[in-house]
Specification:
The protein is of the alpha+beta class. The chain has 4 domains: 273 residues, BirA Bifunctional Protein, domain 2, CATH 3.30.930.10; 122 residues, no CATH class; 54 residues, no CATH class; 153 residues, Threonyl-tRNA Synthetase, Chain A, domain 2, CATH 3.30.980. Helix content is 38%, strand content 21%. The protein contains 17 helices and 19 strands. Helix 3 packs parallel to helix 4 and helix 9 packs across helix 11. The protein is elongated.
């Protein structure tokens, strides 16, 4: 069965058991400010598990898209993903263990066709100190089911993962753990906050006998070992308890919450320990193989990372997230930029996200109507972010190599990579580890100090004596000086890189800007340049500055300077950056002063207006402009 067929079969199976199929919740929780993403199937249903009546009744089933950003470093092996679908069914005070366990077992063995001989389970061993009993009831139900297959149902109490690594499987079929078989959003019963629901759970594992145990995960293998011989397929959570000041009390209604990973079940259905071989992953891999002219077998890690990250980014975009430097947008940006970085390793240096994203959406448009409705916008959002990052990726990697010649990277180095080249902090740390580059002991502290200083600079008015042809340092002069930066960028965007600044002069009435260009500007060109400047005023770009070695600023960062200017060993570099990206719109060597954000140029409904364009000297044009 394909993943798509398994998803539909699961919904149909529980619909036939009296369950109502409910739509997935968004990846961004709507009424839960405690977490950035929907990380489990039960998360959107917490109010109903606590006793609130659900409008669709007491038996529910769905396939919930989930994202766990904390797993991002694990992606690359054969089973971890940040994005996944959780097949879920719930009983809100209706049926309980006697119905749930046999139903899940029947679905996996009869509908999907998994081999019962390879199914192993775990149950809760209890915690007498907290008054929580051992879950003998679930173990007995499993014993009855598995015995019918002629299987030995020996029970082994391992207690903890550490004990499991020391003692091993011991020919067991049913294993008891304390630390792994209690479920709540916050972990084990000791760590649960007051009011949080939770309860014992029983997990299902599938054995891949041809996978050899890796001793780095412990001396012996057991079902909760991370070596990959056993893969967890699902978890039946029995929400029986609520944490109170005095301990644990039974919930008014006993609830069932089952979550089964669609990707892992689909891999088991084709007898593959690699979740990336399934029908909602393999077409993405095939697209990457075609684009890179390389094989998956020889490039598993980068292809897995790209596949996972772009599936996640596509669904985030469908749910309204856009790349940014905050919260969900930051995670989305990090996923996209990691994907681009790994594509670089595959030799894919052209824009590729548009094509891969189209492959991703092809896999889901039939089953997710919101994907079909927003497809074009989703692809455009991701492609735009790739374009922004690719402009600086190669330069950033080159700069990292240069900085690493000192033996290690400092916090200041990491800040430059972040501030200038748009490298998320975690990406720089990962890249350093990949290249064997050490980090200073206190690099994070130094990075934070640099960040704090930049924020302070962006909120503090510039002081002292400045260059730049200013007649004064009043607000209007700062506005016109800021406008020259926007004008310079707009000229280069519309006329090309032959435009180089040859001087400027600012009064309280207007700005004057001289630049190299061979022809008189047409009315259409002047109109386009005006519109570009006013668009950036409307976007309210953030204006900040940092000091850099002159060679780094000009040769590595590509900061623009005025023709003929001479600089010392260090220069100030002013950047004007949109709020939804860390890629500067404008990057110039300049003494200052400027306003803190470009929106101030548009105060009192003022607009940038070119009042004159003329020749200044041979090959040099002059523009005079005002804010009015």
């Amino acid at each position: 069965m394909t993943a798509q067929e398994i998803r539909q079969a699961y919904l149909d199976y529980f619909k036939n058991k009296g369950h109502t199929v409910i739509p997935r919740a968004l990846l961004v929780p709507q009424e839960d400010p405690t977490t950035l993403f929907t990380g489990s199937g039960m998360q959107p249903l917490i109010p109903y598990l606590l006793g609130q009546e659900h409008p669709n009744g007491v038996r529910l089933v769905d396939s919930q898209t989930c994202l766990r950003a904390q797993d991002i470093e694990e992606v690359g092996d054969n089973r971890h993903t940040t994005f996944f679908e959780m097949l879920g069914n719930w009983s809100l005070g209706d049926y309980f263990k006697q119905e749930q366990i046999p139903w899940v077992y029947e679905f996996l063995t009869q509908t999907v066709g998994l081999d019962p001989k390879r199914i192993y389970v775990s149950c809760y061993s209890g915690n007498p100190n907290l008054g929580l009993p051992k879950d003998e009831e679930s173990a007995n139900i499993w014993t009855e089911l598995l015995s019918k297959q002629g299987l030995d149902t020996k029970q082994v109490d391992l207690g903890s993962v550490e004990q499991g690594a020391k003692l091993g499987e011991q020919d067991g079929r049913i294993f008891f753990y304390e630390d792994k078989n209690w479920w709540s959003r916050s972990g084990g019963p000791e760590s649960m906050p007051e009011g949080e629901p939770g309860g014992p759970d029983t997990e299902l594992f599938y054995l891949y006998p041809n996978v050899k145990h890796n001793p780095k995960y412990g001396e012996h293998c057991h079902v909760n070992c991370d070596c990959g011989r056993y893969i967890e397929l699902g978890n039946c959570v029995f929400m029986e308890y609520q944490k109170t000041k005095s301990g644990f009390t039974k919930l008014p209604k006993q609830n069932v919450d089952y979550g089964g990973g669609l990707e892992r079940i689909s891999a088991a259905a084709i007898d593959s320990p690699d979740v990336y071989s399934i029908s909602v992953m393999q077409p993405i891999i095939e697209t990457l193989e075609r684009l890179s002219s390389k094989t998956y077998d020889s490039n598993t890690t980068p292809m897995r990372v790209i596949t996972d990250h772009l599936r996640a980014a596509v669904f985030l975009a469908v749910d309204g997230v856009v790349p940014s430097n905050k919260e969900q947008g930051y995670v989305m940006r990090r996923l996209i930029r990691r994907a681009v970085r790994f594509a670089f390793d595959l030799g894919i240096e052209q824009n590729f996200i548009e094509e891969v994203s189209r492959t991703v959406t092809d896999l889901y448009v039939k089953d997710f109507p919101d994907m079909a409705e927003r497809r074009d916008g989703v692809i455009a959002t991701l492609a735009k972010e790739e374009k922004l990052f690719r402009q600086t990726l190669r330069k950033g990697l080159h700069q990292m190599d240069k900085l690493s010649k000192a033996g290690k990277l400092s916090g200041e180095d990491m800040f430059m990579l972040y501030d200038t080249f748009g490298f998320p902090l975690e990406l720089s740390a990962e890249e350093a580890a990949t290249r064997g580059i050490a980090l200073d002991k206190d690099w994070k502290k130094a990075f934070d100090e640099q960040m704090a200083q930049q924020r302070e600079r962006s909120h503090t008015a510039s002081k002292g004596t400045f260059k730049g042809g200013l007649a004064g340092h009043e607000d209007i002069h700062k506005k016109y000086h800021t406008a020259t930066h926007l004008l310079y960028k707009a000229l280069r965007l519309n006329l090309g890189d032959e435009v180089v600044q040859h001087g400027s002069n600012i009064t309280d009435e207007r700005l004057r800007f001289d630049f190299s260009y061979s022809n008189k500007l047409t009315p259409e060109q002047l109109s386009a340049i005006e519109a570009e400047v006013n668009e950036q005023i409307k976007r309210d770009l953030v204006v900040t500055w940092s000091e850099y070695p002159t060679k780094v600023a000009i040769n590595e960062m590509g900061a623009l300077g005025a023709f003929g200017d001479r600089y010392g060993d260090k220069v100030k570099v002013y950047s004007m950056t949109p709020k939804d990206t860390d890629k500067p719109y404008s990057l110039e060597v300049c003494g200052g002063p400027h306003v803190e954000h470009t929106g101030l140029l548009g105060e009192d409904k003022k607009q940038f207006k070119i009042v004159k364009e003329e020749s200044s000297s041979a090959g040099i044009r002059r523009i005079k402009a005002v804010l009015k």
